[in-house]
């Protein structure tokens, strides 16, 4: 994801010397204005579309999804900022119901909705920012061998959907990130952080356990990896890049009724790999302008929900809490 930052052009002052005669008049050289450094060393935006073939909604079933994305990435004097907003639309009008549930979740919206009905819609957004230790100290003391930098890393997530759950996720995280140089101008980022999440449970709202539907999880740990590797060993007319994301969240409690231990959220694993073809470079010789890509996502214990069939203990687990899906998409950068 990271690219080489823009370097300032060197400015050289010309010194004019010569012998001065009686009739010579001194000439004062005009001052040369220094070029101001741009506030953003890198400033990129992109629009993407991708299709998820077998996405899941825990407790409801599988559904294909259309996903439109806006992303922004910038590098400034002291770090980086990344903003991502997804608009997701499920396409299934009827989906596999919870075992023995009679199809009450067939439309992802609860038993009060007609069947068939439209698939649900979700908006999910997040930002991630870093403050580099090299930049903060105006040095290279945190660059050694393949290590490029160490940074303070922080971010937040939010979402909303129109299911009966009425998801309203809010989360914050903060920790450290280390960046490593990879071959062919690739980059590997490794991070560890503390994570705190709040949610909404529309199924519990109005009930005895949680009348408001508000959910607050315990603070837990998180870890992540982001790997971007251009395949520079291939011929130049095959501009492929491999990208991988791995995310882990630790157990965060149940959030509503601490007495139901079986309902505690489990360790959550998210991993996604994509292979990007730089079609802008192939057709117009404009690198990183337009790409098409394919990918695969594996998401175990999605949202921290235990991936088991519903048993005799309430909320001991939900089926479809592990997602395995292929992706295909395209990205236009500007």
What does this protein structure show overall?
It is a single chain. It contains two helices and 13 strands. By secondary structure, the chain is mainly β. A hairpin with a 3-residue loop joins strand 1 and strand 2 (61-76). The chain starts with 39 loop residues before the first strand and ends with a strand. Residues 1-25, 95-106, 108-115 and 309-316 have low confidence and may be disordered.
SSE layout:
Layout: E1 40-57, E2 61-76, E3 79-90, E4 121-132, H1 133-137, E5 147-161, E6 170-182, E7 186-200, E8 214-216, E9 220-230, E10 240-249, E11 268-277, H2 279-284, E12 290-300, E13 323-333
Antiparallel strand pairs: 1-2, 1-13, 2-3, 3-4, 4-5, 5-6, 6-7, 7-8, 7-9, 9-10, 10-11, 11-12, 12-13
In DSSP terms (H or I, runs of 4 or more residues), the helix count works out at 2
Low-confidence runs of at least 5 consecutive residues: 1-25, 95-106, 108-115, 309-316
Main β-sheet: number of strands, strand sense, barrel status?
A: 12 strands, antiparallel, barrel
Helix amount? under 10%
- Radius of gyration, CA atoms, in whole angstroms: 26 Å
Ends apart, CA distance between termini: 15 Å
- Number of DSSP strand runs: 13
Structural class: mainly beta
Provide the spatial order of strands within the biggest beta sheet: 1-2-3-4-5-6-7-9-10-11-12-13
Apparent shape: globular
Strand residue percentage: over 45%
Mean pLDDT equals 82
* H-E order: EEEEHEEEEEEEHEE
Can I get a quick summary?
By secondary structure, the chain is mainly beta. It contains 2 helices and 13 strands, in the order E-E-E-E-H-E-E-E-E-E-E-E-H-E-E.
């Amino acid at each position: 994801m990271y690219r080489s930052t823009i370097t300032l052009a060197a400015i050289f002052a010309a010194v004019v010397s010569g012998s001065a005669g009686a009739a010579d008049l001194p000439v004062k050289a005009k001052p040369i204005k220094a070029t101001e450094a741009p506030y953003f060393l890198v400033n990129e935006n992109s629009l993407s579309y991708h299709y998820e073939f077998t996405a899941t909604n825990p407790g409801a079933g599988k559904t294909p999804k259309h996903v439109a994305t806006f992303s922004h990435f910038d590098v400034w004097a002291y770090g980086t900022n990344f903003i991502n907003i997804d608009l997701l639309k499920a396409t299934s009008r009827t989906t596999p119901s919870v075992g023995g549930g009679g199809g009450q979740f067939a439309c992802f919206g609860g038993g009060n909705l007609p069947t068939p009905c439209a698939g649900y819609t979700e908006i999910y957004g997040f930002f991630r920012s870093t403050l580099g230790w090299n930049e903060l100290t105006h040095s290279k003391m945190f660059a050694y061998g393949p290590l490029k930098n160490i940074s303070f890393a922080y971010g937040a997530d939010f979402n909303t959907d129109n299911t009966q759950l009425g998801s309203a996720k809010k989360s914050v995280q903060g920790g450290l990130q280390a960046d490593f140089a990879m071959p062919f101008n690739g980059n590997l980022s490794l991070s560890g952080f503390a994570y705190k999440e709040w949610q909404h449970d529309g199924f519990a709202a109005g009930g005895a356990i949680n009348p408001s539907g508000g959910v607050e999880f315990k603070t837990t740990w998180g870890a992540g990896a982001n790997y971007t590797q251009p395949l520079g060993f291939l011929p130049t007319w095959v501009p492929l890049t491999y990208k991988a994301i791995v995310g882990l969240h630790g157990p965060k409690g149940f959030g509503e009724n601490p007495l139901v231990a079986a309902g505690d959220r489990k360790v959550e694993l998210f991993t996604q790999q994509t292979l990007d073809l730089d079609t802008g470079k192939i057709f117009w010789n404009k690198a990183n302008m337009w790409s098409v890509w394919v990918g695969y996502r594996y998401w175990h214990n999605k949202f921290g929900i235990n991936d088991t069939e519903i048993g005799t203990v309430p909320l001991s687990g939900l089926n479809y809490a592990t997602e395995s899906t292929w992706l295909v998409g395209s990205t236009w950068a500007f």
